[in-house]
Design a protein that fits this description.
544 residues; mainly alpha; MetI-like fold; two-stranded antiparallel sheet; transmembrane
Length: 544
């Protein structure tokens, strides 16, 4: 008999782990984002490492989990920390990238005001950077929540070789029901989880709407200045939101105690700056130290591997590169599908209030529902029909489908919030010029949302690997059937992990990391810089 109270308790445990990781990701993202502004050296290291770790599937972290948490700490505490770490590796990167993208695209006029008033670190963060990053954080909270639930079923119950580790949670409960063939109770548990995820995603959606209205720069969503022929100041984004950044700032700073103190200490501060170590040197030092620690850890692992093992690993390199190429092709297909979905569906619902209210909650609930929990049932119920259409490409279809539903929401939410956060002056211009859909997209919408698109596409590309890691080799997915592709690096990783071959797991992860570093340097960093230089829509308001 289904125990509903056990399902509710396990769901609350799972959600508690998710929000602990999300809160920690936001706080650390603010700090790392600010440091990256002050040091190009740290920025290069930070972005490259973030790209690597975001792309590396959860499977690749298992050796780290095994060594540092399961073996070193041990017991239930070690396993609990291991689960928190695994979920953290799934949710943190897009939040960090969203905050970094927000900090990098703060309008220069706002930064100039902050500099002129000589704010310190805390003042800059509380009065400019954190408020400006809120819409980006809100846009990434929903996919982060969804991604956490996606990976929770493979994190609360994880195995390395023949050894299985688990903690109480809804992922463990659903896995137990599925393993026992109790699909009825598994569906009931999914319903309980669905109720919680629906409620939370609706709340996160309201927070996203609120963040745009409060912290967006004169957006159409918040610009309700005229109602029934009267100008209403409290609904004006230009007067209200800008007041929060500038007028309130000026009012605070012109108070006699602060103004007097600033004048009195101005000369002392200038003198102190001459003696103080520049923050960019400190930031660069932190980044270099972090890189040294990682390289030392890699060196320790390398020298611990036998020469005969290295010979075997190096001999697999040609096939590994072929596998990697096949996976990049899959990622390209998934990313293209996600981008097309985001542009057309995201634009439509952002511009139609009724569709926004009806469709977004559905997408949010669907994306927040952990695919590994229901995908085996979907696979079992649709396999006969799908195989009759795709034939020998049936498994490829399911792998691409799993990759799409596990990652499409990153670029979708980013583009959706970018359209909603577009200053109202742009919409007025497009309406006055009577621009068509394609002209709007090509000349205004896509360029204006470019920073959001880059942040979303970066997370989409990097997170697609997680879906491939699960789908390319999934033994006993449904009634002893195995979902498996012929060629793929993620399949090779999964098979090596299933066999307990940690040396091969580490080697494949190393090859993957090198390719991701090249990608991060050639794509993400350059696109972020381009977005800052040419495509910050808010700066167009000041220019006008």
């Amino acid at each position: 008999m289904f125990d509903i109270w056990l399902a509710i308790y396990d769901t609350l445990l799972t959600l508690g782990r998710v929000f602990i990781d999300i809160a920690f990701a936001i706080v650390t993202g603010w700090l790392l984002g600010y440091i990256s502004l002050k040091s190009k050296t740290f920025e290069n290291i930070y972005i490259s490492l973030s790209e690597i770790f975001e792309s590396v599937p959860v499977i690749s972290f298992f050796p780290v989990v095994l060594i540092f948490f399961v073996f070193s700490i041990g017991g239930s505490l070690g396993i609990e920390l291991a689960v928190l770490f695994l979920v953290f590796t799934a949710v943190v990167w897009n939040i960090w990238m969203g905050i970094y993208q927000a900090f990098k695209t703060v309008p220069s006029e706002m930064e100039e005001v902050i500099r002129n008033y000589r704010f310190g670190f805390v003042g800059k963060m509380l009065r400019l950077y954190i408020p400006f990053s809120i819409p980006r954080i809100a846009a990434n909270l929903i996919p982060s929540f969804a991604d956490a639930l996606f990976y929770i079923t493979v994190s609360e119950v994880f195995s390395i070789g023949t050894k299985c580790y688990e903690v109480p949670g809804i992922g463990t409960l659903i896995a137990q029901y599925t393993a026992e063939g109790d699909y009825t109770d598994a569906i009931y548990a999914l319903i309980v989880l669905g109720i919680f995820t629906t409620t939370i995603t609706l709340l996160l959606r309201e927070f996203a709407e609120y963040s745009v209205k409060k912290y967006g720069l004169d957006t159409e969503a918040s610009l309700k200045s005229f109602k029934r022929g009267r100008f209403r100041i409290r609904y004006s984004a230009r007067l209200s939101n800008s007041k929060g950044v500038f007028a309130k700032l000026g009012k605070y700073l012109t108070k006699p105690p602060y103004f007097t103190r600033q004048n009195r200490l101005m000369d002392e501060e200038e003198e102190a700056k001459k003696r103080k170590i520049p923050i960019n040197m400190i930031s660069a030092g932190i980044g270099i130290l972090l890189l040294i620690i990682i390289l030392y850890g890699a060196y320790s692992v390398i020298i611990s591997v036998k020469p005969s093992t290295w010979s075997y690993l190096i001999s697999t390199l040609p096939q590994d590169l072929i596998d990697l190429g096949a996976d990049y092709l899959r990622v390209a297909v998934i990313s293209l599908m996600s981008f097309i979905f985001a542009v057309f569906v995201g634009y439509y619902i952002a511009r139609h209030t009724n569709a926004d209210r009806a469709i977004v909650p559905i997408i949010q609930t669907f994306s927040a529902f952990p695919a590994p929990a229901y995908f085996p049932l979907l696979y079992g119920f649709t396999y006969t029909y799908v195989s009759s259409i795709f034939g020998p490409f049936t498994n490829e279809f399911y792998v691409l489908l799993l990759g799409f539903i596990s990652t499409f929401y990153y670029v979708f939410y980013s583009f959706w919030i970018g359209v909603k956060n577009l200053p109202s002056e742009y919409w007025e211009l497009m309406d006055n010029l009577k621009l068509g859909f394609w002209t709007k997209m090509r000349k205004i919408i896509l360029p204006a949302t470019f920073p959001y698109i880059i942040a979303g596409m970066s997370s989409t590309i990097n997170s697609a690997w997680g879906g491939l890691a699960i789908g390319e080799y999934w033994p006993d997915i449904y009634q002893s059937q195995t979902l498996e592709v012929r060629t793929g690096l993620m399949k090779a990783l999964a098979v090596a992990d299933n066999q307990g071959n940690l040396a091969l797991v580490g080697w494949l992860s190393l090859i993957f990391a090198i390719i991701v570093v090249i990608y991060s340097v050639l794509f993400t960093r350059k696109m972020m810089d381009l977005a800052r230089k040419k495509y910050v829509a808010e700066e167009g308001i000041y220019a006008a």
